[in-house]
Design brief:
Number of strands: 3
Shape: globular
Number of domains: 1
Helix content: 40-55%
CATH topology: TIM Barrel
Strand content: 5-15%
Structural class: mainly alpha
Number of helices: 6
CATH architecture: Alpha-Beta Barrel
Distance between the termini: 35 Å
Order of helices and strands: HHEHHEHEH
Strand order of the largest sheet: 1-2-3
CATH class: Alpha Beta
Largest sheet: 3 strands, parallel
Length: 132
């Protein structure tokens, strides 16, 4: 099972909140996922995805920004490219740009499209890409 850095951190936060109820099996599973990060079994191709649940709360919850920063820094220190998933507003995009996030995806740009529709989509987005 491959894990994202943000997924590992998100689960670790959940586990900490429920610590007394967790068993040693859960602890071992979490340790295994963290160890995966060291082996670079994170989404393959040295890419790190920032979960949309953190992006959704940007500008609303300070803890989300702290987690996004930590995920991006950890990914960067491991030589990984971080991609923010679920970007839906200009505000989210501007916050991520200000934090140095270079790859984003989400409905702000397009819904999922078949491969045959990508060239026209890129043509429409090109002015926006050049302005960034």
């Amino acid at each position: 099972m491959k894990s994202t850095i943000s997924g590992v951190l998100k689960q670790a936060c959940r586990d900490a909140a429920n610590w007394p109820a967790k068993t040693s099996r859960h602890y071992r599973e979490r340790q295994h996922r963290i160890a995966e990060l060291r082996r670079r079994e994170v989404h393959g191709d040295d890419k790190n995805k920032i979960d949309r649940s953190f992006i959704r709360e940007l500008g609303k919850a300070n803890d989300c920004m702290a987690i996004i920063r930590a995920v991006m820094r950890l990914g960067s220190s491991l030589g990984m490219i971080s991609t923010a998933e679920g970007v839906e507003t200009e505000e989210q995009l501007e916050i991520l740009r200000a934090e140095g996030c270079m790859q984003v995806q989400g409905f702000l740009f397009s819904k999922a499209v078949p491969a045959s529709e990508i060239p026209p989509l890129l043509g429409r987005l090109q002015p926006r890409i050049e302005a960034a």
